[in-house]
Design goal:
The two termini are 42 Å apart. Helix content is 54%, strand content 12%. By secondary structure, it is of the alpha+beta class. It is globular, with a radius of gyration of 25 Å. It has 2 domains: 220 residues, no CATH class; 93 residues, Chitinase A, domain 3. Helix 3 crosses helix 13 and helix 8 runs antiparallel to helix 9. A hairpin with a 2-residue loop joins strand 7 and strand 8. The strands form 3 sheets. It has a 4-stranded antiparallel β-sheet, with helices on both faces. The protein has a 3-stranded antiparallel β-sheet with strand order 2-1-9. A two-stranded antiparallel sheet has the order 3-4.
């Protein structure tokens, strides 16, 4: 699985950017009422940046909604006490919301560090973003009704959207040769490999024998590089040469480790995995850019490694109780 959590989470808020305008006299404390504490409370800090409660609660509500939808689609009954890796389903919801909150805070911290700010034109574009999104949802009234359950007003939604815009500016800055941020891209090594794959099929032993035959042909070739390319095309992996970041799931871990041990131009022995038998050849990077993937990985690692301090209200927050209270509040809204 390609680890693009940063881009995915940020893209989400670009979709939701310019959310509900607060109606006159409307109570905008939906999230705080469900949690039982004030939405402007400094619920946590991320590398020293104070985060108001509403930001975290927004992501907690989003995560709870996601989980509920998945259970509904699968026909299962949602139980927040269901054991999952690292605790319960409720623990997962809190952790995922914290990860998204820390990610956004890290973008803001990076923007300050590298001098990224929004221009007047970019801020003005927020108004146009709101107009377009409201129009796409059937008008402002329909859009307000759809988004009111998120517990956001226009100022808050624009704040989140601005973080998404800062993310885009940071990425563009990392592509500027000589910039301080561009130097980070060279700190992550990529792998470029080609692969000959013989899938198991119904007879694993037959696949093993075929792999041995292919390996013998490769070893006996006058031009092993050309032979490898030809044999890869005959094999069961149609992807061809690919460049990827270690740990992103492009290859099984054992194959990835074998590829990392190869010199450029060198090919491996026969490697066995669940899908069959592989022979790998490591290639030069061929100038293929993984700037986006590297940037996302660095940002993600920074967010995961950030120093996070939480207030007592966070520690005592029960995701299951929050979700139940939020559902009830939504149902009772006019």
């Amino acid at each position: 699985m390609r680890k693009r959590m940063a881009a995915l989470a940020l893209a989400l808020c670009l979709v939701l950017g310019g959310c509900a305008l607060k109606k006159e006299g409307e109570d905008a404390s939906l999230l705080g009422r469900a949690a039982g504490f004030g939405e402007e409370l400094a619920l946590l800090t991320v590398d020293g940046r104070e985060i108001p409660a509403w930001r975290y609660l927004y992501w907690l509500a989003f995560t709870c909604d996601q989980v509920r939808e998945k259970y509904k689609d699968s026909g299962l009954t949602l139980d927040w006490e269901t054991p999952v890796t690292g605790g319960t389903l409720a623990d997962y919801a809190k952790d995922q919301a914290l990860a998204n909150t820390a990610l956004y805070a890290t973008v803001e911290n990076w923007a300050e560090r590298y001098g990224c700010v929004l221009s007047e034109a970019e801020r003005a574009a927020l108004v146009e973003t709101w107009r377009e999104q409201a129009e796409a949802r059937g008008g402002e009234e329909a859009y307000l009704k759809e988004l009111a359950d998120l517990g956001l007003d226009r100022l808050r939604s624009e704040e989140l959207t601005e973080v998404g815009m800062l993310y885009a500016k940071l990425y563009q800055l990392c592509l500027v040769e000589g910039s301080e941020l561009s130097g980070l891209l060279g700190t992550v090594d990529s792998l470029t490999v080609d692969r000959i794959l013989i899938r198991n099929g119904e007879d694993r032993e037959a696949a093993r024998e075929k792999a041995a035959e292919v390996f013998s042909r490769l070893n006996g070739a006058e031009d092993p590089a050309a032979a490898f390319s030809a044999l890869a095309l005959e094999g069961d992996d149609p992807a061809g040469p690919r460049t990827f970041l270690p740990g992103d799931g492009t290859l099984p871990q054992a194959l990835e480790e074998a590829a990392e041990a190869l010199e450029e131009g060198q090919y491996s022995g026969i490697l066995e995995s669940e899908e069959g038998f592989s022979i790998l050849r490591r290639l030069a990077g061929e100038g293929k850019s993984l700037a986006g993937e590297v940037f996302d990985r660095l940002l993600q690692e920074a967010a995961e490694g950030a120093q996070v301090q939480t207030a007592p209200a966070y520690d005592s927050l029960d995701a299951a109780a929050f979700d139940a209270a939020l559902l009830e509040l939504r149902e009772n809204r006019e």
